[in-house]
Give the backbone structure.
Amino acid sequence: MMVPPGIGQIRAAAERIRGFVRRTPMLAAAPAREHSELARGLLLKLEALQVTGSFKARGAINAVLALAPERLQRGIVTASGGNHGLAVAYAGWAVGAPATIFLPRSVSADKVAKLGAWGARVVISGEVWDDSNRAALQHAEAENLVYIHPFADPDVIAGQGTIALEILEQNPDVDTLLVAIGGGGLISGIVIAARALKPATRIIGIEPTGAPTLYESLAAGRLVELGTLDTAAVTLAPRRSEDLNFAIIKETVEQIVLVEDAEMREAAQWLWGEVGIAVELSGAAAVAALLAGHYPARAGERLCAVVCGAGTDGFERA
């Protein structure tokens, strides 16, 4: 199994990606008219304002910049539910390497259009990410291209971990981080960095009830593959994670809670109404865990929710 990155690699990633990504703001959610008590103790790390619209740019550009230039000449390839694909397309654009992105049929038309704007080649393959990923791996091997995994890559994880460096620089008093989980790359990087800098930090993961990939794996004590997926938050919906992410999460994440699509939608609308940011369902997942009461905040607890992706599907009615 691959070795997870350490805090040194995450610090190195922060230096490597400087100038390629934004240092995103962290805002107090208060004052807020609705859910005012919860908002009073809540900070929001706004990765929805990151280049390409999500945190994924950090991991993708770090993975690409860590490669030898000659390995990039033929191009890079990945599979994505949308956000990682945009990040790899951006990374390819930034270094002048052709990028091919495999996507499931469930991907939004908006993300397909954005991929084209970054100059990427788009291939629609399969019903869910796992199907697209198999096709991407086969294509990368056949064409001798560099494949960049969306979550089970130490350089990608290190890039995502730079978020925790920023959070604890922006507010060293944060007690608890709430982080959405798709495949597990974001929470893996964040927990490694946060625990290295402030060992008492609590990390709470959030998954959709319709795609409880890591929740079920932890319950079983082993990595499991879901038979079905039932969520509109497609960027949080692989059928299976990977050993690297499962091992990190099993040892370090305190708890995973599940949220309904309707609860993510309500949280997205709350973020728009109270904070003025438009986020996709996955971007609202961490806030949804609080608003819906699935993670009850302790008295005086200093919380930070990672608002991980921009979009408009949070405003679409089921």
